[in-house]
Amino acid sequence: MEVPNEHTISVKELSVGYDTLSVAKNINFTVKSGELCAIVGVNGIGKSTLLRTLGKLQPRLKGTIFIKGEKLETYSPIQLSRALSVVLTELPASKNLTVQELIALGRQPYTNWLGNLTVADKKLVQQSLDSFLLTELRDRKCHELSDGQMQRVLIARAMAQDTSVILLDEPTTHLDLYHKVQILKLLQNLAHHQQKTILFTTHEIDLAIQLCDKILILDGTENPFGNPCELIDQKHFERLFPPEMVVFDAKTGAFKVNK
Amino acid sequence: MHATKSYQISFVLILIALILAGVLNISSGSVFIPFWDIVSALFGDTLKEESWQYIIWNYRVPKAFTSILVGGGLSLSGLLMQTLFRNPLAGPFVLGISSGASLGAALLLMGVSMLSGWTSFTLFSDISLAIAASVGSFLVLLVVLMVAQRVKDTMALLIIGLMFGSITSAIVSVLAYFSTAENLQRFIFWSFGSVGNLSSQQVVLLFGIVVLGTVLSIASIKPLNAYLLGEHYAQSLGVSLKKSKIVIIVATGLLAGGVTAFAGPIAFIGLAVPHLTRQIFDTMEHRILIPAVFLYGAILMLLCDTVAQLPNSAHLLPINAITSLVGAPVVIWLLVRKRKMLF
After folding, report:
1. A229: Cα separation from own chain's centroid
2. Same domain, yes or no: A29 and A77
3. What is the rounded distance in angstroms from the CA atom of residue B234 to the CA atom of residue B221?
4. For A126, which residue in chain B has the nearest alpha carbon?
5. A92 and A134, same structural domain?
6. Where are the transmembrane segments (chain B) (predicted)?
7. Do A36 and A127 belong to one domain?
8. Do A81 and B86 touch (CB under 8 A)?
9. Judging by DSSP bridges, how do beta strands A70-71 and A7-18 pair with one another?
């Protein structure tokens, strides 16, 4: 178990992008264990690029990323897979996997060369099924699931991977309000009760304000980071969208259309 | 993952089916040998008829053994391709791997003799034919992999495989036009596919290739399972993409290239068998699928070869025709019944 308040993921002067094209730069933040952090910003500002860079799925352009105090580049693939798991927007390539098979794949970093599950592995898979309300669906195939169920399965797989850091790319897209809240509450629960560090990108800024401990706003310049109340006080959300279209109401913490 | 136990009965049944298919295959042929004589010969008894003894041990048993290697090897290569390219329609034939082998064989059998003016095909040993076909299939596999890295669209991949097929048949037609009758005939017989014309040395060589390919496949079980989630997920699970891809490609090339080199381009087995296997073994777990697909492919190949014998006649149908007649309807049936083929 992690020591509470350990700086689990920390980023200094980070620039992300492709080859020479920098998408987002000057990113600085530190998320501690047990914290749920949202990454928000307009389309194309580099949220997903940042997330993939943090997960070492694409190279960073500049700056340093620390995972549990160690530089990201010092991790071997297998070490990283035991420290950090991801939930991506792309769906699993095979739609024929059952829920349980898919979640069990999360144990790969720990299993032997054949991928045999030990009793402890099976217990963790069971816990992940239970935590994400999937026990009844365990034998369903992925192509039989709704979007909300699929998203829970993918997060449960990341939980089964048992890493201190979990990165999620737009976990609430395509879901109705109830299922958006359900997913975010499950993530909050996972962060607070199992001391995980969870970062996710989202467009649900009002939900993030209500449920997250920290928010990183990618605005293309200073990229403010902090807890939601601080960010509201500093009027960062007002500047996120053009005010002639969308205005931010600091009292309710919600956006409104400027009529 | 599913408990391995629940598949034990299926594996016992499939092994029994393999033995039955093998005995059936050995008992059919142009010379009629009573069934119980076959069985007692297989148990090591000496038969009264010496010619029967000779036919069984020097012709039919090696042929059945070759069928097992060919069917199992091709099917396994199809499974590897479907997982690696995450494409249910991938297979040695569809992706143009068999075409590559054909091109290699055609260039050797017809092209070299055309250029150098040699007419005697005895110059080209069977081993050099095998090497030419293997090199051809490996090259196509590498090109397909390079394309797959750039083009994420699975349809594009299949179309490229199709184009390879067209290029091959075009080059083969050109070569055939200038080729001598003997060399052309030799190429055409190779392209019909056959499991019965291998010398004992060739059977041993094929056995070695298939074993090596299978061992590499088994060593790749974990990355193969991770690839079911997609490349990014596999990477996040600690799989080294580069290393695992090389091993899987080499295994596929050995299995598909090796088999095609010795037995000719045999259609549809590699594509259809993994899907048929998933009808019985309802899992995506490669620990189960690798042995199941191999055994299933072996059985299907034994049966196809038995049909190709036209029991009790001297005629031998091209095995490629039989596998197409069996395999193509299976693929159509799967597409119609399941709407989309899932892998």
Report:
1. 21
2. yes
3. 12
4. B1
5. yes
6. 12-36, 64-81, 93-115, 127-148, 155-178, 198-219, 246-268, 288-304, 316-336
7. no
8. no
9. unpaired
Test A109 with B232 for CB contact under 8 angstroms: no
Q: Which residues pair with A12 in a beta bridge?
A: A64
Tokens, residue B252 = 């596929």
Which residue ranges of chain A lie beneath pLDDT 50?
1-5
Judgement on whether residues A197 and A255 belong to the same structural domain of the protein? yes
- For chain A, give the longest Cα–Cα distance: 61
Rounded to an integer, what distance in angstroms lies between the CA atom of residue B335 and that of residue B342?
A: 9
The pLDDT score that the predictor gives to residue B339 is 57
**How far, in whole angstroms, is CA A89 from its chain's centroid?**
11
Instruction: Assess whether A170 and A103 both reside in one domain.
Output: no
Put simply, the answer to whether B227 touches A96 (Cβ < 8 Å) is no
A108 to B238: CB separation less than 8 angstroms, yes or no: yes
Minimum Cα–Cα distance from A141: chain B residue: B283
User: Which among B1, B225, B236 has CB closest to A81?
Assistant: B236
Q: For residue B56, give every residue at least 6 positions away whose Cβ sits within 8 Å of its Cβ, in sequence order, or none.
A: B26, B33, B38, B41, B42, B47
- Report yes or no: B1 at the A interface, CB cutoff 8 Å: yes
How far, in whole angstroms, is CA B73 from its chain's centroid?
5
**Taking a C-beta distance cutoff of 8 angstroms, is the pair A6, A49 a contact?**
no
Q: How many domains does chain A have?
A: 2
At B310, list the tokens.
Answer: 């036209």
Query: What's the pLDDT tens digit per position in B257-312?
Result: 889 888 888 988 999 999 999 888 888 999 999 999 999 999 999 999 999 887 66
Residue B5, chain A, CB below 8 Å: the answer is no
A59 and A15 part of one domain: yes
Lowest mean per-residue pLDDT among A233-237, B98-102, B153-157: B153-157
Q: Do A96 and B342 contact (CB within 8 A), yes or no? A: yes
The domain of A107 spans 88-162
Mean pLDDT value across residues B205-233: 95
CATH 1.10.3470.10 fits B4-338, yes or no: yes
H/E stretch holding B272:
helix B269-280
Does residue B342 sit at the A interface (CB-CB below 8 Å)? Answer: yes
State whether A46 and A114 are in the same domain.
no
Looking up tokens 């003997």 gives B182
Give, rounded to a whole angstrom, the gap between the first and last alpha carbons of chain B: 17
Query: Are residues A138 and A150 part of one domain?
Result: yes
> Pick from A113, A128, A162: which residue ends a domain?
A162
pTM for this prediction: 0.90
